[in-house]
Amino acid sequence: MITQNEKEILLMNSDKNFNLLLEIIESVPSRKRGFSVDTQERDKNFRDVLMHLYEWHAMLERWYREGMDGDTPSMPAAGYKWSAIELLNLRIWEQYQDLSLNQAIKKLKLSHDRVMELIKLHTNEQLMTKKYYKWTKTSNLYSYFAANTSSHYIWAIKKCEVIAKSI
Fold first, then answer.
1. Would you place residue 1 in the very low, low, confident or very high pLDDT band (cuts 50, 70, 90)?
2. Cβ partners under 8 Å of residue 18, min gap 6
3. Interatomic CA distance for residues 145 and 109, integer angstroms
4. Residue 141: partners with Cβ closer than 8 Å, 6 or more residues away
5. pLDDT averaged over the chain?
6. Confidence of residue 117 (pLDDT cuts 50, 70, 90)
7. pLDDT(137) > 60
8. 6-27+40-166: CATH homologous superfamily?
9. CA distance 136 to 133
10. Would you tell me how many other CB atoms lie within 10 Å of the CB of residue 147?
11. 57-95: pLDDT as tens digits
């Protein structure tokens, strides 16, 4: 029996969850996909959810690039601490209000592909070993990738299921 390592599982789950997310959106008639739902929550439509994912991919790519260059990336973003994550997420939401859903899908597909390629560059040991890279501090690279792909996609799937049922 062939066993999969954590890297293979991460890649498989990320792609599986990403594709499920897109399937949920595609299950809604195209004329309704841009509709917003009446909610007190930040994300009111598919575009909001997708651009949230996209921007977190972009932050991950920046952290990765800066960290691998030997710098200490500002996390989560310049001017924001983890304790102010809601403010950062609101800024992300505001930034993309004029973008179409089709543009959001294209941007997210490209960023997903880029992040998958970054994961593929590493061995399972490099991904799983805590402190392997100085910039990940006490964590491992895997946790950064999982949080911004497979795990984040699960959050997005739940959000999009609610939106799909409401429109």
1. low
2. 112, 149, 153
3. 16
4. 122, 126, 127, 132, 133
5. 97
6. very high
7. yes
8. dinb family like domain (1.20.120.450)
9. 6
10. 13
11. 999 999 999 999 999 999 999 999 999 999 999 999 999
Give the closest residue to 65 by CA, choosing from 150, 144, 147.
144
Amino acid in the structure at residue 86? E
| 135 touches 68 (CB < 8 A) | yes
59, two tokens = 């932050």
Please report, for the chain, the start and end positions of each structural domain, with discontinuous segments joined by +. Answer: 6-27+40-166
Per-position b or e across 57-93, b if 16+ CB within 10 A of its CB: bbbbebbbeebeeeeebebbbeebeeeeeeebbeebb
